[in-house]
Fold:
Amino acid sequence: MAIKVPPTIGAAIALLIQMFVGAAIFSCVTLIAVALHLLLEFVHARHFLPEFAEWGGSALEFLVWAADVLCFALFIIVEAIKFCLRMWEALKD
Structure:
């Protein structure tokens, strides 16, 4: 037996769940960027790689982090718009 909730509360719960999922994915990708940074620091301290490889690794680290932030920001914007549209439809009726 399903619990009946008003559409506005259902939309708010859906938004909350989506925000938690988005934050979890953001955290996972950020941890990957941090792990890459720590690996590059270790390699730099031991002088294992030539300088161009270290620059490439740093660029990759920055691109992963920047893509993570951009995708998270776009995700938040899209979910907020969807929430506003659901609220508009629910309150219009």
